[in-house]
Amino acid sequence: MILIEIIVGIIAAAILVFVARKKDVSFWRLALIITALIYVGFALFGKQWDWLPIEFGGVLLYSFFVFLSFRFSNLFLALGWALHVVWDLALHFDGHPGYVPEWYPGVCLGLDLMVAGYLTWLFLGKKRETLSPR
């Protein structure tokens, strides 16, 4: 079943990349933070108050990658997207701890990896003036 979820995530990423292909890098920075905030929303909706500090910790962690992309290189943004897979699978695989829909981590895995791959390709292969680190 997870293969179908990953494929759905890949398709969603392809649509997102197509729609946002002309956007500036700030779109992808904001999107990474929103991706982390979704888990905060799941914890709030599921009334899992004990997990809120952990989920907010994820928001801080991925915001740090956004900061690094401002300060040093956009490749840190791509790395943040790639490492978000660890958050999906290590903490939330199969709907663990009960407030995350079982299908969500697989979809997020496909989306995160595709976006990370796209951004890596973009930043390494197509150095655009509008996508500078600042």
| Structural class assignment | mainly alpha
| H/E series | HHHHH
Which overall shape is indicated by the principal axes computed on the Cα atoms? globular
Average pLDDT, all residues: 91
Total E-strand runs: 0
Distance between the termini: 41 Å
Note the beta-strand portion: under 5%
Radius of gyration over all CA atoms, rounded? 15 Å
Task: Provide a brief overview of the structure.
This protein is mainly α and 134 residues long.
Could you explain the architecture of this structure?
The chain is globular. The termini are far apart. It has helices spanning 2-20, 25-45, 52-71, 75-92, 104-125. Helix 4 runs antiparallel to helix 5 (104-125). With 134 residues, the chain is an all-alpha fold. The protein contains five helices and no strands.
Reconstruct the topology from this structure:
Elements: H1 2-20, H2 25-45, H3 52-71, H4 75-92, H5 104-125
Helix pairs in contact: 1-5, 2-3, 2-4, 3-4, 4-5
Keywords:
75% helix, 5 helices, mainly alpha
